[in-house]
Write a structure and sequence with these properties.
By secondary structure, the chain is an alpha+beta fold. It has one domain (2-263): Endonuclease/exonuclease/phosphatase (Deoxyribonuclease I, Chain A), CATH 3.60.10.10. The chain has helices at residues 12-26, 46-49, 118-144, 177-188, 195-199, 232-235, and strands at 2-8, 31-35, 55-59, 69-73, 79-82, 95-100, 103-109, 147-153, 193-194, 226-230, 238-243, 259-263. α3 packs parallel to α4. It comes from Streptantibioticus ferralitis. This is Exodeoxyribonuclease III. Pfam families: Exo_endo_phos (PF03372). Residues 6-256 form the Endonuclease/exonuclease/phosphatase domain.
Length: 265
């Protein structure tokens, strides 16, 4: 099996103190993609920056304390690419990809937005550029005989089944009609597959993010915004997809939970 996990750590230094290190030591994943690292590599403890048994790639944001993505892989990457050729976003700590034998694995942290603000405009600019890159990436992978996995926090719930309180969020960033339509284009036009949904077509959720406010976690009032998006070839080999939801609120080391997918090789 080839197993990939993606998780928004909500600050890697803080997550490391709460349980991320123990989780990483116990995981059976071959690749782990992290988002919202919010630290320069030099600011990370050695056991987090370069843990034993892992090859690590960190792509911090030029804006201190914001964003940041990383990839941990058991096998040394053949190639690393930071960013996707965007003048605006390549230094923002939102995308990094590594080439492993036969597969490209990327960690994505798509901007979160806020309706009526510059943050939403930024999100829309990112989406426009990134969709064009996804099309290019799929075409290049086909020529090279490679598969692609784009793992991360996409900050969009695609369907009503992807968030608990969808009716009250139809005018909020993350569930806007135009955002959902864009994600449909990733699947229907660009040709990628939402692996978790393909394995759980009729399920509510499984959610991967719960607000720290109120009783969201206890009531499972969450959102499914963390995706493993794949080219059809490897998507067809997906055997299982699980959200590693903490058994208790006190055991959470992020407001997101790891999403883990295992593929036949």
């Amino acid at each position: 099996m080839f197993t990939v996990t993606t998780v928004n750590v909500n600050g890697l230094r803080a997550a490391a103190k709460k349980g991320f290190v123990l989780w990483l030591e116990a995981t059976g994943a071959d690749v782990v993609c992290l988002q919202e690292v919010r630290a320069e590599p030099a600011q990370l403890p050695e056991e987090v920056r370069e843990p034993a048994g892992w090859h690590t790639v960190h792509a911090p944001s030029s804006a201190k304390g914001r964003a940041g993505v990383s990839v941990y892989s058991r096998q040394e990457p053949e190639r690393v690419r930071v960013g996707f050729g965007s003048d605006e976003f390549d230094a923002s700590g939102r995308y990094v990809e590594v080439d492993l034998p036969g597969v490209t694995v990327a960690s994505l942290y798509l901007p979160s937005g806020e309706v009526g603000t510059e943050r939403q405009a930024e999100k829309e600019r990112f989406m426009k550029e990134f969709l064009a890159y996804l099309v290019e990436l799929l075409a290049r992978a086909a020529v090279e005989g490679r598969e692609v996995l784009v793992c991360g926090d996409w900050n969009i719930a695609h369907r009503e089944a992807d968030l608990k309180n969808w009716k009250s969020n139809t005018k909020n960033s993350g569930f806007l009609p135009e955002e959902r339509a864009w994600l449909s284009r990733v699947f229907d036009e660009a040709g990628y597959v939402d692996v978790v949904r393909s394995l759980h077509p009729d399920a509510t959720g499984p959610y991967s993010w719960w607000s720290y406010r109120g009783k969201a976690f206890d009531n499972d009032a969450g959102w499914r915004i963390d995706y493993v998006v794949a080219t059809p070839g490897i998507a067809a080999r997906a055997e299982s997809a699980v959200v590693e939801r903490a058994t208790d609120y006190t055991l959470r080391w992020s407001d997101h939970a790891p999403v883990t997918v295992a593929f036949r090789v």
